[in-house]
Every structure is written in C-alpha cells, then in structure tokens.
Description:
Strand content: 15-25%
CATH topology: Jelly Rolls
Number of helices: 4
Structural class: alpha+beta
Oligomer: single chain
Number of strands: 7
Order of helices and strands: HEEEEEEHEHH
Number of domains: 1
CATH superfamily: Regulatory protein AraC
Amino acid sequence: xxxxxxxxxxxxxxxxxxxxxxxxxxxxxxxxxxxxxxxxxxxxxxxxxxxxxxxxxxxxxxxxxxxxxxxxxxxxxxxxxxxxxxxxxxxxxxxxxxxxxxxxxxxxxxxxxxxxxxxxxxxxxxxxxxxxxxxxxxxxxxxxxxxxxxxxxxxxxxxxxxxxxxxxx
Length: 169
C-alpha cells in the first residue's frame, strides 16, 4: 500500500471512476471499501457525514476539512451504516492561479462542525456537490478547473457559515 492516499487511489479503493485527476466527489453510500482507511492524504477533503445512530444521533451532521498531509480516515463499509459520507476531494494543484489558492489559508486549518444542520443547509451542501458532479461529467476543457474551484469555494463558504452558526444540541 502507498504511504499517502491520492485521489486516484481513493477512487480505486471505493470503486469510483476518476473523472478528473485533481478532483473527485466522495459518495460512500455504496462503496467497496473493504478495510478502514487511515493514512495521510495529498489532497484537501471537505467531508460531510450524516448521523448513523451509533456515534452521533441521526439528526446530527459532521462537517470537516482535511488538509494535505493530515490523516484521512474513513471506516470501511462494514464499520458504518448506509448514511455514510459525502464530500469533495481536491488536489492543491487544482487551485493554482485561482482566488481560492490565495484564500485557502483563511479557512480553518481543520474545520469541524458537530451539530444539527437544518434541512435547508443540508440541501445547500447537496446542491453544491451536485453542481461539482455535473461539471465533472462535462468534458474537461479550459474552463473546467475554474468552474469546479468556484463551486468548491462556494461550498467552503457555506460550510464555514453553517459551522459558525451551528450549536451542539
């Protein structure tokens, strides 16, 4: 096994196609991950985990930003329930020459939100991820990276808002 997980390796381990070498959506609701994943990553990951009734209540949502070099942890399919994890993985090279490259340091080093998100907030997050997915399924052209990065930045801004407003209940 590699010393660092890459986007391509993550996709291979979870049975997903690599549609873009620098960005991927993480939808682990039906993944093929056989073993727990715990290793440093070479990408950013904004992960959203819905409550599973074991460690957090079903109405709770966890949001967190993992930075390159940090340990990326995802339990195998056998160790979690179907609600699972969603999110976006993006390599720092995707951010080159974009406003997000200059501002990524303004986001918390490790954004953690453990609270109840409203249905509307969950829909906003899902909508941002859907827009990134649409662009990933579009043929890669000279505009792809800019559009994807804009959607990622919007998603990060919403998550920062939601985490600063969310109260642990």
